Description:
Elements: H1 2-17, H2 22-37, H3 39-46, H4 51-72, H5 76-96, H6 100-124, H7 142-160, H8 164-188, H9 200-215, H10 218-225, H11 229-254, H12 258-279
Helix pairs in contact: 1-2, 2-4, 2-5, 4-5, 6-7, 6-8, 7-8, 9-11, 9-12, 10-12, 11-12
Amino acid sequence: MAATLALVLAVGSALAADDPTRTQLEQRIKLTARLYGDGANSQRIAGSGNARAITLLDEGRVHQTQAEQALAAGDLAAARREVDEALRHISLARKLVPNASARQAEAQQRYQQRLATLERLLQAWAVPAGADASASTPADGLADRQAAVRLIAAARNQAAAEQFDDANRQLAEAETHLLAGMNRLLHQRTIDYTARAATPTDAFYEALARHEGLIELVPVALSELKPGPDAITLVERYSDTSRALRQQAVQRQQRGEVQQAVADLNNALIYVQRALAAAGVALPSPTN
Length: 288
């Protein structure tokens, strides 16, 4: 039946390219009639309970009848308009009520796409080896991440058994956990920038740790918030500047220029904050 639909569309293209001849129009009307005469197709739509699809099918039949009547009367322009409407109606109805194999293929495609997205999110949200979710605080988001991992594993098993609808429900729940956990992590990592170090060296290492914690959240924010191309350009620019300042700070610290190294790291923190803000994360201003 998909081949019939494709053939009808091909005939329609020919009609659009040339003056519609009666022979071509007759062929198209007959092919469209075959779509409406397909008992399995009509029964599937009629039994679907989808009110919109049923209405489209009924209205399409009216257009098909009018196309046949117009052709018999020699009104080729009207016949063409009506058969176009008949084809449009049944095409929309079929899309609203796909057959079992089409639904399965669509569910499989959704599964593959969602799984790929979740895998990218997990890759962006790296967790140190040996991290214990049971020992984490709710703000860490680690428990949510591990719940997502378990749900993804269950979804893989269901997909292997070709239960793609169930697998998609598991992935949807996994996505909820993963995004909630990352949101908690983003806020937990950005609450307090105030330096309380007793010495410049302590201040350097505290600032370095804060920078490392924030810079690793940039790809997570990009994955979760999906900013536009212009915002991504800003994120990359600010991130590159932040990394360059961090490298400069490390080199200064190694030369014994600790105070200047701390200043460089504070500037690096400002730029990584700008990167996160460009990605769509609202953060407080760092305290130098």
